[in-house]
Amino acid sequence: MTKIRNLSMALVAAAAFTVAGASSHAADIKVGAASNVGGMIVFVAQGKGFFAKHGLNAKVVVRNTGSALTKSLRAGEIDFAPAAFTNLPVALEKGIKLRGVVGYLGGHFNAPASDTNVGIIARPGTGISSVKDLKGKKVGVAFGTTGDLYLQEVLKKNGLSKNDLKRINVRPPSHVSTLDSGGVDAMVLWEPNVTKALDKVKGSKLILRGGGHVCFCAGMHGQPDVVYKDRKRTQAFVDAMAEAAHYLRDPKNAKEVAEIGSRYVRGMNADLVARTTKHVIYDARIGGGTAAAFKASVKLLIAQKKMKKPYDPAKYLDTSFIDSTIKRHPEWFSDMK
């Protein structure tokens, strides 16, 4: 009996040594994510241990906005971060050097427009029941965001412009409270605020959700010296993101995914996470469709005079890492079109 006990203790010690050894050789990495359900691939990769599985000692850094993430990236506080296609090209044209290596948010791999997580909600008693009814009304939106671009595209397709209404700059953390207090007649929001607003503002009405007007999309990128200094680490990061995205999309994991999201996104419980993530597309792939979505966003930005000329997406996108992942692990993409 004593021999068996000693053997068991030896095996436990050996296992502990092996884990400690693996951990000591793990590559450190700092991954940025936005403080909303858009960052769920990152949160699942950390929460389910996919980063660790692929040999990474990851630290997830959460910021409230894309601009804050870009600032932290440039300062070297994080290695990889996301940015929306509807504002990233502006920064690229101004000279920031970045290489996108894996998908983060949106259906850009298959379509140039993907905006099912964006919506316009009207307060009760405003007489707003369609986009055209926004004329002359106070409409809240965060200036310079994808939501702002979405609003302007929707207005244009309905024969209106931003000058036909009173457009009010409202930052995302105040979207729901401003709509609830009557500070605006309608608000342009994205998840989880769309669902939050419909819950909180009694009698409010969803005027429009999505519609294929813009690409509410983002990829994960890093500065070239970080991406290519340790290609093995970058490949491990892409692999972990892809496996996490597959896990996240599987309906049988919905309960655990919702619980993970509630730990990372402030002000959200598991039920709210579950009700909002169904409106979001999580796809780690990047490719020709991604380039088309990028070009479509650039075209809109040029029309709005935010950019001067087209920007070649090949200067930003590097598909080599995700292509390797797809070749080695086709099972992680078998549920995707």
Low-confidence sequence ranges: 1-23
Any guess at the CATH architecture of the largest domain? 3-Layer(aba) Sandwich
Supply the helix-strand structural class: alpha/beta
Report the strand count.
Answer: 10
> What's the helix count?
14
CATH class call of the largest domain: Alpha Beta
Report the C-alpha radius of gyration, rounded.
22 Å
Share in β-strands? 15-25%
Per CATH, what is the topology of the largest domain?
Answer: D-Maltodextrin-Binding Protein, domain 2
Helix content: 40-55%
For the record, the count of structural domains works out to: 2
The major beta sheet can be summarized as: 5 strands, mixed
Query: Given the C-alpha coordinates, what overall shape results?
Result: globular
How do the strands of the widest beta sheet line up side by side? 7-6-8-5-9
In the CATH hierarchy, what is the superfamily of the largest domain?
Periplasmic binding protein-like II
Measured between the Cα atoms of the first and last residue, the distance is: 57 Å
What is the ordering of alpha helices and beta strands? HEHHEHEHEEEHEHEHEEHHHHHH
**Mean of the pLDDT scores?**
91
Describe what you observe in this structure.
The protein has 337 residues and is α/β, with parallel strands linked by helices. The protein folds into 2 domains: 2-113 and 215-332, D-Maltodextrin-Binding Protein, domain 2 (3-Layer(aba) Sandwich), CATH 3.40.190; 118-209, D-Maltodextrin-Binding Protein, domain 2 (3-Layer(aba) Sandwich), CATH 3.40.190. 43% of the residues lie in helices and 16% in strands. The protein contains 14 helices and 10 strands. It has helices spanning 2-24, 40-47, 50-53, 66-74, 88-93, 146-157, 175-181, 193-200, 224-229, 231-249, 254-264, 270-277, 288-303, 320-328; strands at 27-34, 56-63, 81-84, 99-105, 118-122, 138-141, 166-169, 186-190, 205-209, 218-222. The strands form 3 sheets. Strands 7-6-8-5-9 form a 5-stranded mixed β-sheet, sandwiched between helices. It has a 3-stranded antiparallel β-sheet with strand order 3-10-4. The longest helix is centred in the first third of the chain and has 23 residues, at 2-24. The radius of gyration is 22 Å and the shape is globular.
